[in-house]
Design goal:
Number of domains: 1
CATH class: Mainly Alpha
CATH architecture: Orthogonal Bundle
Largest sheet: 2 strands, antiparallel
Distance between the termini: 60 Å
CATH topology: Ammonium transporter fold
Oligomer: single chain
Strand content: under 5%
Number of helices: 14
Strand order of the largest sheet: 1-2
CATH superfamily: Ammonium transporter AmtB like domains
Radius of gyration: 20 Å
Number of strands: 2
Order of helices and strands: HHEEHHHHHHHHHHHH
Helix content: 55-70%
Shape: globular
Structural class: mainly alpha
């Protein structure tokens, strides 16, 4: 690694602050998902988010960061040169020349933490905690780390010019289509007579959305890895797309259902934020407005399609994150301009059909790989023990049955 003389204190402070903002997103996700599930499973799904902060950090330190970013093996995966953070320290590394390598490590660690946690919303209320821990480890190794290397670590998709500014494919497409696969393996939730799957605490959903949105500025803006104009563009685009998608979703639900929905508006905001993630630092401001409109409408009708297909993606992870990330990755191929980011590319509107084609192909490849590998991982785990909890545990609730705790003392 090169010497410390190139380190920029402003860039370093910005990336470290952004890492803290992204770290806040995982507790935010815990509240967002926790408010959406039934009361008897509130702590269980929060636990699935929080424990990711520990388990994934464990993996990321030992070999995960190294496999994602150190060296290259046929464009597929890295090597173990940086295992246990060997050679990762205060000097800058190859991926961010103006910040310490360990700042890049910790920033990327926060992405690795939240990605598998996103999947849990699909199989909420019905997966055993010990099975989830095994899934968390296997999915991180066989899905997240290869994707990170392929696109951000100099792997084979990066060599074809594929771009993903802050994780539209690496994070949202991968988690969203993994969520879809999990629904086919785990199956539908079972409800007691008279029981409904409505959110038990909409206030927590709003709190979680606020924390996610706040953290998303670090998620997208920090991906510039420098305090510069690209970071500012990403901040602005993030704000616009999330806001426009929220309003779009709100007005569609209002027109179809006759009443405005807070949960609907919040879900729309998350969809818009996921959709702008891959293109936040590559597209002009006017394009972010269009991305927000597209996300709010297309992701909404993805929920409608899911319901027509009778798929029990409990918290609409596929529609918001999978479809949102896929759409944003493709729209990046349309709206990208080098005038916005010299390290980016010109998209379809600028006459570069080749870049657009590779964005579409990469998004499809990532979706298909995430779906297939997740399906196989869950089937493999089922060979040794049932991933899904017994009916008696599901009926009682995972909080009491698995954790021996309850969120509220109502006696």
């Amino acid at each position: 690694m090169s010497g410390a003389a190139t380190i920029n204190s402003g860039d370093t402070a910005f990336v470290l602050l952004s890492a803290a903002l992204v770290a806040l997103m995982t507790p935010g996700l815990a509240f967002f998902y926790g408010g959406l599930v039934r009361r008897k499973n509130f702590l269980a799904i929060m636990m699935q988010s929080f424990i990711s902060m520990g388990i994934v950090t464990f993996i990321w330190v030992i070999f995960g960061y190294s496999l994602a970013f150190s060296g290259d093996t046929h464009g597929i995966i890295g090597n173990f040169n940086w295992a246990m953070l060997r050679h990762v320290g205060a000097a800058p590394g190859p991926w961010a020349p103006t910040i310490p390598a360990d700042a890049h490590f910790v920033y990327q660690e926060m992405f690795a933490i939240i990605t598998p946690a996103l999947i849990t919303g699909a199989f909420a209320d019905r997966v055993a905690f010990k099975s989830y821990l095994k899934f968390l480890v296997l999915w991180s190794i066989f899905v997240y780390m290869p994707f990170t290397h392929w696109i951000w670590g100099g792997g084979w998709l990066a060599s074809h010019g594929v771009l993903d500014f802050a994780g539209g494919m690496v994070v949202h497409v991968s988690a969203g289509f993994a969520a879809l696969a999990s629904v086919f393996v785990v199956g539908k939730r079972r409800f007691l007579p008279g029981e409904r799957g409505l959110p038990h605490n909409v206030a927590f959903v709003a709190l979680g959305t606020g924390l996610l949105w706040f953290g998303w500025f670090g998620f997208n803006g920090g991906s510039a890895l420098a305090a510069n104009g690209v970071a500012a563009q990403a901040f602005v685009n993030t704000d616009i797309a999330g806001s426009i998608a929220m309003c779009t979703w709100l007005f569609i639900t209002w027109a179809r259902d006759g009443k405005p929905s807070l949960v609907g508006a919040l879900t729309g905001a998350v969809a818009g934020l996921a959709c702008i993630t891959p293109c936040a630092g590559y597209i002009p401001t006017w394009a972010a407005f269009i991305v927000g409109l597209a996300a709010g409408s297309i992701c909404y009708f993805a929920v409608v399609l899911k319901e027509k297909m009778d798929l029990d993606d409990a918290l609409d992870v596929w529609a918001a994150h999978g479809v949102g990330g896929l759409l944003g990755s493709i729209l990046l191929g349309v709206f990208a301009y080098k005038s916005v980011n010299a390290r980016g590319a010109d998209g379809l509107l600028a006459g570069n059909a080749g870049f657009f084609g590779w964005q579409v192909a990469a998004a499809v490849i990532v979706a298909a790989y995430a779906f297939t590998m997740t399906f196989l991982i869950l089937k493999f785990l089922n060979l040794f023990e049932q991933v899904r909890v017994p009916d008696s545990v599901e009926q009682r609730g995972l909080d009491e049955s698995e954790l021996g705790e309850t969120a509220y003392d109502l006696t």
